């Protein structure tokens, strides 16, 4: 019993699943109205006529037939020309063979019949004559162009109008015929027409209050790129372009810059093109042809005869300024590098206002040419040479080695280079040479005795580049004498010492510290502070964490 119930459930599940899977899909019917129109007839001869219609839109209605209806104006006779039930969107063309009476008026209507209704375009009137063009193929033209079309125009007189028509507008255009009436000349108007517009060129004439038109040929409007404005042009600025008959709504007009095909824009920045060179060919695609302008877009080249170095000599890992070169005009937004001889050079990007900072790394002594290597201009060589000299220290004179006494270091120092002296990684001097030497007062950071100093110079970024290490002997401060040799708190004491020239010190006596009243020319005065004990003690000078004690004792009474 349970087994049969299980089979029953499986059977019901299969039935329900089958019903669900067979549910019909929803079908959406396109009910947008079909649009058709009748176009001017063309190639009108006594033995044949070319009829034109156009289907603008087809929906889901079933097409039963489409074609043309021809009527003569002198009778009610009509002729239906069926083209079947498989029309295609766009222009419908049919050449009708027959015997047409010259001067007789006809009208033509394009129709399209569906299972719902019959759609018809407005009738177009024409008359058969001997007016035709030699070649009715599509021609390309731009606004302002003068068009010359060969053909037979013997029957054309002053009563004929020349019409240039698009789906947007139709213009009555002035025209000329040559003496033999075998060449038609007219100018494409400078308004109303845009890139990509399809234009039908037709003659029109009023006969018995009816307007008869005769199709001659098709034109396709194609934009033209205009010559660029006169320079000077610079790489950081946009390439400015103008054109005639630009598209209404799309970007179908293509231009060419060197070998790149781009959509037209009124401004294009060179940096986005990834092109090399200082001269760009400009062109455009006109119809099916590629046209290059005789004018090119040229970037002004820098005058390297005006470029020089602010400092003609630098050290390895040193820097100088390049003058007479406008970075914004010639290098901004472009790809570039620099070299000194065959070694790389580098620009200091923080100094692009006015002069350009230029630095090098490890380069051997010598005189070298310096060049900019630019994607735009190629190699731009500076006319003068840059000299590289390794810093050499000739001597270090600390004198007697007392604080604030002058230390003089001799070497091949450069006048505008900043040099550094460090002690244990701490900078104790930073400055430029005086009369060719580094001269500075013995700093308090030096300890009494032997000190190892590092001599170098400030490289790019201000960091020191060390080139030499020297040992110097420092005495610091040496107390020579003091008087009186005894005294009570509140008494005045005068001290004479070496290395004593400024009021940076504190004086220690009897376990107390005090500030000198004044310090001048190796002499200091202080008042004995109140102390807790009497007796003999040493007099000390304290500076920068160091203590210098007297040899003799002072007695506090």
From TrEMBL:
<dbReference type="Pfam" id="PF01833">
    <property type="entry name" value="TIG"/>
</dbReference>
<feature type="domain" description="IPT/TIG">
    <location>
        <begin position="479"/>
        <end position="548"/>
    </location>
</feature>
<dbReference type="InterPro" id="IPR002909">
    <property type="entry name" value="IPT_dom"/>
</dbReference>
<dbReference type="InterPro" id="IPR013783">
    <property type="entry name" value="Ig-like_fold"/>
</dbReference>
<protein>
    <submittedName>
        <fullName>IPT/TIG domain-containing protein</fullName>
    </submittedName>
</protein>
<dbReference type="InterPro" id="IPR014756">
    <property type="entry name" value="Ig_E-set"/>
</dbReference>
